[in-house]
Amino acid sequence: MRLATVALAALAVFASTGAHAQMQGQGQGQRERDRSAGGQSEEEGRESRRPPRIAPLRSVPNAGPCPFVKILYDAARFVELEGGRAAAANVGYTGEIEGVSAGCAYQSDEPISVQMDILFNLGRGPQADGDQRTYRYWIAVTERNEAVLAKEYFDLPVNFEGAATASVTEEQSIIIPRATAETSGGNFEVLIGFDVTPEMAEFNRTGSRFRMTAGQAAATPPAE
Fold this sequence. Notes:
It is a single chain. This protein is α+β, with helices and mostly antiparallel strands. The chain folds into 2 domains: 2-49; 68-205, Immunoglobulin-like. Helix content is 22%, strand content 36%. The strands form 2 sheets. It has a 4-stranded mixed beta sheet, with no helix packed on it. Strands 2-3-4-7 form a 4-stranded antiparallel beta sheet. The two termini are 55 Å apart.
């Protein structure tokens, strides 16, 4: 949106300049007639024909760096295993936080506003019992490598509509208060993860994983 605004402003400048050039191209006789008829000086005429001035657009930088936003490894994936046995045939619903893009804004002593787009890839295996599943995830704010300051949970309802997988992008905004104007966003981390059981966290921690289509029957090749 900012680039579009800059382009429109530039277009307005060029349009005004073109009109000014066209007006300057009028003959000397026309200027004399105008001055005689209205008693207007040549300097005043130039002033009246001057295109409107457009103030340059300014981009005001943040008061400091943005908080570091990342996905917690132990909670980056959600894998349901029937009976706790790690086998493709036992997989129920699955999910993975594929990525996150984030930006922030704050000035003076204002709180930090963080905007995020979070991409989720979800799946359902042979033990999934329907087309719909509500996943749960959280966003936490911590001091950099220190204690959790705040944590909030969110529901993510998904309708697979008969498919084995689905992708959803969630837009979230959070506000981080600052003690003083000197408190930098670099003092904070924003962590994102699924609400997982201890068993799921351990499964993720060991690096074990299933594809989101784990356990789905392979397509039958056409008969020759």
